[in-house]
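This part of the workshop introduces the protein records we will be handling. Backbone structure tokens are a discrete shorthand for how the chain folds in space. Once this layout is familiar, the rest of the handout is easier to follow. The record below serves as our worked example for the rest of this section.
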Amino acid sequence: MTGRDILEAMTDIRGAYIVPAQERLGYLPAQQAKKPRLTVRTLRRAALLAAVLALLLAALLTTAMAANEDFRQRVFAFFHIGQAVVPEHSQSGRDTPDGPVLDPGTIDVGGVIRGTHIHAPSGTARDGLFLIWAGGEGYRYDAYREENGALVRLEPRSFRREYTVLGKQFIVEFEWVEHGGQFACTYTPSDAAYTLYSLPGGDCRVLVMFQWYSEEHPGARYPALLDPETGELADVLAGTGAETLDIFLAAVSGDRSKMLLSTYEGALYCVDLAAGKLYDVDQLSGEHAQACSLIGNTLSCWVLEGDSVEDARLGSYRAWAIDLTTMERREVFRDVPATAATSHEVWSLNWGARDQDPEGWAAQGRPELGEPGRVGLTFLSGFSTFNVWGNQYAGTRYALEADAGRNVWAVDLTSGERIKVEGWLWPEADYPDIECVPSADGEKVLIRTWKEGTFGELGVLDFVKGTYVQFSRENLNAVSEYDAYWFDSDSVVVCASGGGEEYDYYLYRLLD
């Protein structure tokens, strides 16, 4: 088990009515509401007025969307909030802090996004917590959370039990904290024969991926659900036939009724946990599926059909959906061109199939990267052998598609319905200068652009609300930004390094 394994284990706006929106914006008298403070230096009066008007429009739109399903299905609303300038901060005297340091004050972007800056020693920011390397044996971290403008260290709880899984003995030992109903692991031994993944839903249950090595099952893994409060281990796959698979990844649905499995060879399976039935996704589909998304009681699948290697062109996607009640299949879309970002993921995720049958894989045609400006699917992310780092992930409901004019549509993977994101054009950038990062629950996607060593624009497309909120940012500090991803379900973190073993985290929270 590596340091990355332990980090992988540490996992996991609704519509406002008109009056609350007015209160929040200071449109009501002072005795009825406090006026929000705007502290970003570069937001000029005109930009601020535009942002305020956009926010009021957002409140009106989200109210209408919540009340009228048909309206929500017709349009995604776009709001460019403004620009955030990261305040200057010095690295001197803070090279070896004992724990994370929260800078006083906040960055306010149009009253919609609140930014904070945290300087910390070696560690990571993930799942609503700052995890700081504590040293010692194994992989041990101290966990901190932001609370009332301060960082508070959480006291870990110890766990140690012995279990028998598929006739093999495992000692499961770890330390953990609870944060907002979520499980977060802060310690495992260096020789741990398991990986822990937290699950959404607020019940602190955890997905345990046991792993062992033998001649019969080299690198075999097997998932089970563990309640760290009681120690109860549920072998949810027992009797389904999944016990004989060489499982690589697993993901559980939010209601715990279904589980997706992938094997090292790239095969996909769906398990009905309530009925105890295992389904081969290829057999349900009548053909090979490269990836899939579990969306309620629908399994959406797709395949990238590449052109020949000699043509050096990108392929196109074909998608279908399977009703898991009736097992009926329906076509969703076909012949939608791939782009560098989407084809890169599908090519990468099938490394197992490529290694098992290199000649057969080559005959399918590799989707070459490049070809700037080609339009098609700019985001498509599901469950496969592609590991979404730090989370168990069952896919998203929507893909994104752009046309020659850079107009953007959200494409429903259960029906093929295309919903335009009004007023927003896809940035004039190619992968990897623009990337899409799905949230663990599949309800949002972070769209980030990279320019000259910093992340220029950050946007969050909320598939549930039907909104896309975007802001630009500028960081003039002597740091090198290297990653931007989901901190929790409502926050994005930008990670930077000033050199050495210390890091800066810029946290941007979408306000309710």
About this structure: The two ends are 39 Å apart (CA to CA). The chain has one domain: 3-301+375-510. DSSP finds eight helices and 34 strands in the chain.
